[in-house]
Amino acid sequence: QQQVKQSPQSLIVQKGGIPIINCAYENTAFDYFPWYQQFPGKGPALLIAIRPDVSEKKEGRFTISFNKSAKQFSLHIMDSQPGDSATYFCAARAGGTSYGKLTFGQGTILTVHP
Amino acid sequence: KAGVTQTPRYLIKTRGQQVTLSCSPISGHRSVSWYQQTPGQGLQFLFEYFSETQRNKGNFPGRFSGRQFSNSRSEMNVSTLELGDSALYLCASSLAGQGIADTQYFGPGTRLTVL
User: Fold this and answer.
1) What is the pLDDT of residues A19-70, one digit of tens each?
2) In angstroms, what separates the C-alpha of B79 from chain A's closest C-alpha?
3) Exposed / middle / buried, residue A76 (Cβ in 10 Å: 0-12, 13-18, 19+)
4) Is B57 helix (H, G, I), strand (E, B) or coil?
């Protein structure tokens, strides 16, 4: 059962555009929502994370918007650059004894054209 | 501070063999989680070890096992390899103590190919 649904599967934007990646979850026990960026041949690297008591968080050009009632969250990349071309994963984690378990979305392949 | 290291980086095995992968977490990190990444299934949680004890387990068959040593280094073992086990195996470490929620830092992975 896929507990985190991510869309779109792929996304192409021009330099300077604002790609938006969306995720939806089902498990109301999730209380931590990170986004990871992965380049070919590398492991995922944390970009930004949010908790459900916050509706928006911004770090540099990356912004997470969170809608707790809709059980949805999204990543916005401002002023996108060709170097942002990578695969992006949303994830979620429940509290309690599940701290070490991340449930990932299927990933979005982002291409930023110069 | 050195990041998460995984060895070997690449591995080729044949069906029926077994394999052991190793992960050294960031110094001071006590939790190690393992994930399998494939094009079809994406990133899937295998298990997590904390203080030498398996704390969480994903939905994988018993052929997949792991352990953690007193220095927090971890190994995972896959026995009786199948073609479908071909994947990138990722290890992630975190401080994760009870009641502490924090970031998982991933290693570069071990690319396993089963022929």
Assistant:
1) 999 999 999 889 899 999 999 989 999 999 998 889 999 999 999 999 999 9
2) 23
3) middle
4) strand
CA of A89: how far to CAs of A5, A26, A47, A76, B16, in Å? Answer: 10, 17, 10, 13, 33
Mutate to test the interface with A, among B55, B106, B110 (most CBs of A within 10 A): B106
Percent of chain B topping pLDDT 90: 81
pLDDT in tens, B47-81: 999 989 998 899 999 999 999 999 999 999 999 99
Biggest alpha carbon–alpha carbon distance for chain A: 45
B46-77 burial, b at 16+ Cβ within 10 Å, e below that, comes to bbbbbeeeebbebebeeebbbebeeebbbbbe
Residue in chain A nearest B102 by alpha carbon: A99
Average pLDDT value for residue range A92-103:
82
A residues 29-68 closer than 8 Å to B (CB): 31-32, 34, 36, 41-46, 49
Q: Return all residues near A59 (Cβ < 8 A) that are at least 6 apart.
A: A47, A48
Q: What is the 3-state secondary structure (H, E, C) of B20-49?
A: EEEEECCCCCCEEEEEEEECCCEEEEEEEE
